[in-house]
Design goal:
It is a single chain. The protein is mainly β. The chain folds into three domains: 110 residues, Galactose-binding domain-like (Jelly Rolls); 131 residues, Jelly Rolls, CATH 2.60.120; 141 residues, Sandwich (Jelly Rolls). Helix content is 0%, strand content 56%. The strands form seven sheets. The chain has a five-stranded antiparallel β-sheet with strand order 11-14-19-16-17, with no helix packed on it. The protein has a five-stranded antiparallel β-sheet with strand order 12-13-20-15-18, with no helix packed on it. A hairpin with a 5-residue loop joins strand 1 and strand 2. 33% of the residues are buried.
Length: 429
């Protein structure tokens, strides 16, 4: 029976799209900032062994530019998510595309898209963006099969023969996924290295890859340190000798793209603002007020990406006047960073809390974090970090308490908020 797509609470926080059945369509409209190859990934779950994902991308004219089918299978339950990576696809900047998910019997937690940082990932015969060292090495390209490089049997070190590409931009503290397909005419090792291309030639990633005569896919993940590199080098070291003498290596479909480092530990994106419309670029969308007894005692408006909360009488308690945003998840065992800017027409305190309200238990508050700050007419930036030690919750809220904290003088003023950000920093140590 087709029930139609529905939103359900996810154990990882937030919602997931559920009840996918034949005939249903989950569709996203996207456009990209620059031409290139893009990799889409999704976090999915299923409780059925025969679950299937049908993935496609179409342009505005309905032309299919990418299509693949995947047998997802039973992931361990309807909330036991796994990461699914789809084949890279060439997309053109400024052109709208429709990403379609069809099939049956799976839930979708979220979808991500990343730009492949490797140019000419299919390694065409002209070796555009690639360099073979030494330059007397010969190579041939077969459509769909990648590049086959002929190698002598006289090399000693892996760096005696290289296939490399430079000018790769890697950002500090970002996590990347390197994937490629490779084989050799006989079993041998190949070195894969991402490093600086000057100075100390610091290596960001290095792996000795064991090749066989069968084409295999290889996947590695690494995280950059505190320094970015705008011109990193990817090198495949081909020079390890083979006892049979002359031989060949085939490499194809090289991809390097940013991934969510928390994906396999719960799925919530890291270093992304979890507060919907936290920058107020969409006006008041996602924000609402609570004014106990008299709604007129708290008025909210947004201008120039600032929220202005005009307070009349402050009420009896701090929580009698609140500005609230709700609908994001908090995961137990992770570290979070909260940042916001605030000011008041006259100096007063501001309370804040991150948690959830149990309506069935007389609106009992379950808090992950709380604090109070001193506001002045001068705008200040406030930053807090905290570990989520309570049970995960999918529909958390942030509440700014504007009521009576120090007395009736807390009323008859306006408090302004801007740049409200809550970021998952990764697992708590």
């Amino acid at each position: 029976m087709m029930q139609g797509l529905q939103l359900e609470d996810s154990v990882e926080g937030g919602k997931h799209v559920s009840y996918m059945d034949q005939g249903d369509l989950l569709q996203y409209k996207i456009d990209v900032a620059q031409d290139g190859v893009y990799v889409l990934s999704a976090r999915m779950a299923s409780g059925k062994s025969d679950s299937k994902v049908q993935f496609s991308i179409q342009d505005e004219q309905g032309t299919t530019v990418a299509q693949s089918d995947l047998s997802l299978g039973d992931t361990g339950g309807w909330q036991a998510y796994k990461m699914v990576y789809f084949p890279g696809v060439n997309l053109t900047a400024g052109k709208p595309y429709y990403v379609n998910f069809e099939g049956a019997d799976y839930n979708t937690r979220w979808v991500d898209i990343s730009h492949n940082k490797i140019q000419n990932s299919e390694l065409t015969a002209d070796l555009n963006h690639w360099e073979l060292i030494p330059n007397h090495l010969t190579a041939s390209h077969d459509e769909g099969e990648g590049l086959t490089i002929k190698l002598p049997g006289t090399n000693e070190h892996w760096w005696d023969a290289l296939l490399q590409q430079g000018q790769i931009k890697l950002d500090a503290n970002k996590t990347y996924r390197l994937t490629f397909e490779a084989s050799a005419s006989g079993p041998k090792s190949m070195q894969a290295v991402l490093s600086q291309n000057a100075g100390d030639f610091v290596k960001y990633f290095e792996e000795e890859v064991e090749l066989t005569a069968d084409q295999k896919s290889y996947t590695y993940t690494f995280t950059m340190g505190d320094t970015s590199d705008s011109a990193a080098m990817l090198a495949f070291g081909l020079g390890y000798p083979l006892s049979t003498g002359e031989h060949s290596i085939n490499i194809n479909n090289v991809q390097l793209y940013e991934v969510n480092p928390n994906a396999d530990q719960g799925g919530q994106p890291a270093h992304v603002n979890l507060i919907p419309n936290g920058d107020f670029s969409k006006g008041k969308e996602g924000w609402f007020t609570h004014a106990d007894d008299n709604a007129a005692d708290l008025e909210m408006q947004v201008s120039n990406q600032q929220l202005h909360a005009k307070i009349g009488h402050a009420g009896q308690h701090p929580w009698d006047r609140q500005v609230i945003n709700e609908g994001f998840g908090i995961q137990q065992g992770f570290k979070y960073k909260l940042t916001f800017k605030a000011k008041a027409e006259k100096s007063r305190k501001l309370g804040l809390g991150i948690g959830w309200v149990d309506a069935a238990a007389n609106y009992e508050w379950h808090g992950f974090f709380g604090a109070r700050v001193d506001l002045t007419p001068e705008e200040q930036e406030f930053t807090f970090t905290f570990d989520a030690t309570e049970d995960s919750y999918a529909n958390t809220r942030i509440s700014f308490d504007l009521g009576n904290i120090d007395g009736v003088q807390d009323g008859n003023t306006t408090v302004s908020l801007s740049e409200v950000s809550l970021i998952n920093l990764g697992p708590a140590n």
